[in-house]
UniProtKB/TrEMBL annotation:
Entries under PANTHER family matching the protein: HTH-TYPE TRANSCRIPTIONAL REGULATOR CYNR, TRANSCRIPTIONAL DUAL REGULATOR HCAR-RELATED
Gene source species: Eubacterium oxidoreducens
Protein's UniProt keywords contain Secreted: no
Every HTH lysR-type domain range: 1-58
Record-annotated membrane-spanning stretches: none
GO CC field: protein-DNA complex
The name this protein goes by in its record: DNA-binding transcriptional regulator, LysR family
Any GO molecular function: DNA-binding transcription factor activity
Length: 295
């Protein structure tokens, strides 16, 4: 299967016309039709049902073209990334994090690092659920994690980054948004969003509040859904400070709790590149120099 055949197949699925598909791909209709025929022979099933000069997808063809379209987009991105890399860089460091705001100062760190090491490209990878698994498969060089997640990781160096506190998140028009510190008593009678892959520390705080019998709770599948539920008035939530995007859309008020989340970076012990250690040190320095920034 060639990229040309993939493109022809996707185009025919869109136009449902051999003549228009050939015209759009700047080839003759016989050439266009022949490549589609070769592709069907290779995959071993009929992709299109012919009707005169037109064609429509078979059920198997619909599934196949969906996969091809996604694969073609991934291929396009890979080519573009390769072109960018080959033109300017000699090395690449990939860093996996659950969401962009988890390492709020990542853009600043990349800018500072690439000023000193212009030949090294920093590539962020956003993996909300499987970042550590991807890291263990060597699909990333560095991963942002909570220290509690790293206890059983073999072949890994753990680098301290910052301590993140617990915050109450609510609508900016909520009366709680006027407070400087939230206590358990402030939450009594309210509905708390829980679940959604909460870290162990946060789950224990949620369970303590639920066990008091003085609050209602509502299961929310993930962080983004929780924020939508807050915006629609379904409730409030407790969240680690590192998930704050600082957009001002919601109020983030410190919660009266001494426990914190230990946020770390993990690297592979086998990766001895000085550039990796230098980039981690750049991030650590930025966070150590932070003054009066809510984490």
């Amino acid at each position: 299967m060639t990229t040309k055949q993939i493109d022809y197949c996707i185009e025919l699925a869109h136009t449902e016309s051999f003549s228009r598909g050939a015209e759009n791909m700047f080839v003759s209709q016989p050439t266009f039709s022949y490549q589609i025929k070769l592709l069907e022979e290779e995959v071993g099933f009929q992709i299109f049902v012919r009707n005169g000069k037109g064609a429509s997808l078979t059920p198997a063809g619909q599934q196949f073209v969906t996969y091809l379209s996604n694969m073609r987009q991934e291929m396009k991105r890979a080519i573009e990334q390769g072109q960018n890399f080959s033109a300017k860089y000699q090395d690449n460091i990939s860093i996996s994090l659950m969401v962009r705001q988890a390492i709020y100062f990542l853009p600043e760190a990349i800018k500072e690092f690439e000023t000193n090491d212009p030949g090294v490209l920093i590539t962020p990878l956003f993996q909300y659920e499987n970042g550590i698994d991807s890291f263990l498969k060597n699909e990333s060089d560095i991963v942002f994690a909570l220290e509690e997640q790293t206890k059983q990781l073999a072949g890994t160096n753990v680098h301290q980054l910052f301590q993140s506190h617990v915050y109450l998140v609510c609508d900016r028009n909520d009366p709680l948004a006027e407070k400087n510190l939230i206590t358990d008593a402030d939450l009594y009678g309210r509905t708390l969003m829980v679940g959604g892959g909460s870290p162990a520390l946060l789950r224990s705080i949620q369970q303590k509040l639920i066990a008091s019998g003085k609050i209602e709770y509502f299961n929310s599948p993930n962080h983004d859904t929780t924020h939508i539920n807050i915006a629609t008035g379904k409730g409030i939530c407790l969240s680690p400070g590192f998930l704050n995007d600082h957009s001002g859309q919601y109020a983030w008020i410190p919660y009266d709790c001494k426990d914190t989340f230990s946020c770390v970076l993990c690297s592979h012990k086998a990766d001895q590149r000085k550039s990796v250690q230098s980039f981690i040190a750049t991030l650590q320095k930025i966070y150590s120099d932070v003054v009066a920034f809510p984490l």
